[in-house]
Amino acid sequence: MLRVLKSFGAFWYDFVIGDDWQVAAIVVVALGLTALLAHAAHVSAWWLVPLAAFAALAWSLYRATRRT
Amino acid sequence: MTAALPLVLTVFVACAVEAIEALTIVLAAGLTRQWRSTFQGMAAALLVLAAVVGVLGPTITLLPLATLRLVVGALLAIFGLQWLRKAILRATGHKALHDEASAYLREVAAAKAAPVSSRGRVSDWYAFTLAFKGVLLEGLEVVFIVITFGDNQRDLGAAVLGAAIAVVVVTVTGIAVRAPLAKVPENAMKFAVGIMLTSFGSFWGAEGAGVRWPGGDAALLVIVPVVAVVALAYVGWLRRYRAPAGLGPPAATPVPESGGVTG
Fold first, then answer.
1. Does A25 fall in a domain?
2. How far is residue B55's CA from residue B53's CA, in Å, rounded to a whole number?
3. Averaged over B129-150, what is the pLDDT?
4. Total domain count for chain A?
5. DSSP string, B194-208
6. B129 or B97, which is more confident?
7. What distance in Å separates residue B177's CA from the closest CA in chain A?
8. Is B148 on the interface with A (CB under 8 A)?
9. A30 vs A24, A35, A54, B206, B219, CA distance in Å?
């Protein structure tokens, strides 16, 4: 049972997170900040998620090519 | 129907990529082992997928739209960025191209080496499990794309149509040529899908977080090209300044036929 749960978890980790967990972390943080700005400060920061996505991709590519 | 065309096309391309990968595995199992057990594996995987759709479909529609968009947007943006990352690394020579022909040969070699054993009504357990895993894993990605895109756009029919056309086209082509679809520009397709998933994910995610996009849904018409331009700029950046060791100057860098982002 534990083996099944572990492989289920590993599948979803690979499915969602993939090769670089930092990309996922940056997107989640950006969405959290966007929600905070929208609900606490009433700022519609529509630009934040796309900018964070571009930054996350650049950072991930930089790290991946640094190793090669 | 015209309004649903971008949705149908996006789901079609995304699902075609997954269907090609599943077809490669099924062909390797069927042609080298045994078609009966391969079809049993496929049928078992399709039953599991149907159960997943049966459970996930109604559950996901019960969620409030804002929550759904936040969660699904985050997942799609992360998923899309992973696809884009891989496609860019492949297009610039930092990662080996996902070659369906060589993937097929690897599967064939492994299938030929594996011993034959039967379990219950399945006469070749290896062919069964190979087909089951291939169809289930790729199928789960298709289900994820169809449900998330269809539900967010409130047009599940268009998403199902795009996926169904993709699966039928890939299956019929695969049966006709009886070989993995090696000539398909898979990296270019993944690049395009990565752009669409990242764009839709960012749009829905931010909307779910409480943002009002300038222009409403029309903002997507700006987001998609901007994401494409940025991704292409990253390809140029890696080719220009971060060429893989062992290759010549960028102008002389050989780009395999299916390796470039334009195919």
1. yes
2. 5
3. 86
4. 1
5. HHHHHHHHHHHHHHH
6. B129
7. 30
8. no
9. 10, 9, 11, 9, 19
pLDDT digits (tens, 9 = 90+) for B223-242: 999 999 999 999 999 988 87
CA angle B40, B44, B47 (to 5 degrees): 140
Across-strand partners of B119?
B122
> Is the model more confident about B37 or about B120?
B37
Which of A28, A34, A57 is the mutation pick for testing B, counting most B CBs within 10 A?
Answer: A57
Instruction: Give chain B positions within 8 Å (CB) of A41.
Output: none
The structure's pTM equals 0.71
Local confidence band at B206 (pLDDT 50, 70, 90 cut-offs) = very high
Q: Which amino acid is at B34?
A: Q
The answer to the question of residue A10 being in a domain is no
Would you state the structure tokens that stand for residue A58, as one six-digit string? 């650049």
**Does B247 lie at the interface with A, CB-CB under 8 angstroms?**
no
Range of A26's domain? 18-67
* Tokens 């990352």 belong to residue: B85
Query: Is residue A9 assigned to a domain?
Result: no
- Number of Cα atoms under 13 Å in the Cβ half of residue A22: 12
B221 at A interface, C-beta within 8 A? no
Inter-residue contact B133 to B44 (CB < 8 Å): no
- Assess if residue A3 is contained within a domain: no
Among B211, B240, B247, pick the best mutation site for testing chain A contact (most A Cβ within 10 A): B211
Nearest beta carbon to residue A45 from set B85, B211, B231? B211
Q: What is the pLDDT of residues A3-50, one digit of tens each?
A: 777 777 777 777 777 788 999 999 999 999 999 999 999 999 999 999
* pLDDT at residue B218, as a whole number: 86
Q: What tokens does B31 get?
A: 């042609």
Angle value at C-alpha B79, between A45 and B101, nearest 5 degrees: 150
Measured between beta carbons, the chain A residues lying within 8 angstroms of B144 are: 15
Q: Domain boundaries in chain B? A: 5-252
